[in-house]
Design brief:
By secondary structure, the chain is α+β, with helices and mostly antiparallel strands. 40% of the residues lie in helices and 26% in strands. It has eleven helices and eleven strands. A seven-stranded mixed β-sheet has the order 3-4-2-1-7-10-9. The protein has a four-stranded antiparallel β-sheet with strand order 5-6-11-8, with no helix packed on it. Strand 9 and strand 10 form a beta hairpin. It is elongated and about 95 Å long. The termini are far apart.
C-alpha cells in the first residue's frame, strides 16, 4: 500500500462520519431538557472521541438507539435528560469536572437561571476546549486544513512529540532527565527520523516499546507506571483528535423570553443554532453563548408607580 493510502486510511477511513447534536430547551422555571443525538457510523458513535456511549450505564438518561440493529447502514444514538434549574452538567456528560484530567473531547455546558423581583434571566455558555493541534502536531493541522496537501513526515512528528512530551512531563530528576533527553534525541534521529511514515505506522508498537525502554532503563522502577501513564494519555489524546476529523457538531438552544445576546450562526424560529467541526476548536476554544430575559410587566408598572409616589411624597415633604 502506498504511503498516502496508508496515512489516509489510518486518519479517516477507519472511522466513519458522525453528526453530533446537542439540543437544550430551557423552561420558564429554569429547568432544562437536554437531548444528545449521534447519527452515523456505528464504530464512531461508540468510540471515545465524543463519549456519549458511556451514558448507556447512567440511569439518569433515557436512551434510544439503533446500534443493535443490523438492518441499517447508519445508526442513531439518542440520550435525553431533564435537569433542575442551575443543575451542573458534568463535563462530557459522564466525567465529573473534578475528576482527574482526561484526554477526551472536553466541553463545558453552563445553564444559569436567576429570578429577580422584576424579571427573570436565562443564560447558556458552552465551551469546546481547544485540542491545541498546531502546538502538538502542526503537520496534522495542515492535513486537516487541506487534505490534498503534502503531509509527509506526519508519523515522525507524532512520534517525536509523544516521547519528548512524555519525558518533559515526567518527575524524573532534572540532571538525569537531561542525560535521557540526549540519548532519546539520538535514538529519534537515528531510528525514527530515518524511517518513512508508512514504516513508522506499520511498526508503531515496536518502536513505542523500544522508546519507552530507553526512557525507563536508567531510572528508578518507581517511575515506570508514571512514564507509561503519561505516554498512554498523550497517545490517546492524539488518537481522539484524529477520530474527530470527520465528526460534525450542532448545538440547538431554545430560551424563554426575549433574546438579549447571542453569537448564534443561524436561527430558525425560536431555535438558535451553531454548526462547527474540529477546525473550529483545534487551535483555540470554541465558545457559544446566549442569554434572554422575561420581564414581569405588571410588577414593573407597580414598581414605577410606587417610585413615582415616593418621589412625590419626598418633594412635598421637602417643600413643607
Amino acid at each position: 500500500m502506498k504511503l498516502n493510502s496508508i496515512i489516509l486510511f489510518s486518519l479517516l477511513f477507519l472511522y466513519g462520519c458522525v453528526q453530533n447534536t446537542i439540543a437544550i430547551y430551557v423552561s420558564p422555571n429554569g429547568s432544562f431538557d437536554m437531548v444528545i443525538h449521534a447519527h452515523g457510523d456505528e464504530n464512531d458513535i461508540l468510540d471515545n472521541d465524543f463519549p456519549i456511549n458511556n451514558l448507556l450505564n447512567n440511569s439518569d438518561w433515557i436512551i434510544s438507539s439503533t446500534i443493535d440493529s443490523n438492518n441499517v447502514d447508519t445508526h442513531d444514538f439518542i440520550a435525553k435528560r431533564q435537569f433542575f434549574a442551575n443543575a451542573e452538567v458534568p463535563q462530557n456528560f459522564t466525567i465529573n469536572n473534578n475528576a482527574e484530567i482526561h484526554p477526551f473531547l472536553k466541553h463545558d455546558i453552563d445553564v444559569k437561571y436567576r429570578n429577580w423581583i422584576l424579571y427573570k434571566t436565562y443564560s447558556i455558555n458552552i465551551l469546546f476546549h481547544s485540542r491545541e493541534v498546531e502546538d502538538k502536531y502542526p503537520t496534522l493541522m495542515n492535513f486537516i486544513n487541506n487534505p490534498e496537501s503534502n503531509y509527509s513526515g506526519l508519523m515522525q512528528e507524532i512520534f517525536f512529540y509523544l516521547f519528548e512530551e512524555t519525558l518533559l512531563r515526567s518527575q524524573i530528576e532534572f540532571n538525569q532527565k537531561a542525560i535521557i533527553q540526549k540519548e532519546l534525541n539520538t535514538w529519534l534521529q537515528q531510528e525514527v527520523a530515518t524511517k518513512t511514515d508508512s514504516t513508522i505506522f506499520e511498526y508503531f508498537d515496536d518502536l513505542k516499546e523500544e522508546g519507552l525502554d530507553l526512557i525507563m532503563h536508567p531510572v528508578n522502577p518507581d517511575f515506570y507506571n508514571e512514564i507509561d501513564s503519561i505516554f498512554n494519555y498523550l497517545e490517546k489524546e492524539y488518537e481522539i483528535t484524529k477520530k474527530l476529523i470527520d465528526d460534525d457538531f450542532e448545538i440547538k438552544i431554545i430560551l424563554p423570553g426575549i433574546l438579549e445576546k447571542s453569537n448564534h450562526k443561524e436561527q430558525n424560529s425560536d431555535t438558535l443554532k451553531w454548526s462547527f467541526d474540529l477546525k473550529d476548536f483545534m487551535n483555540s476554544d470554541y465558545q457559544i453563548h446566549a442569554s434572554s430575559k422575561i420581564i414581569y410587566q405588571q410588577r414593573s408598572i407597580i414598581a414605577a408607580l410606587l417610585s413615582l409616589i415616593i418621589l412625590i411624597i419626598l418633594i412635598i415633604k421637602k417643600r413643607i
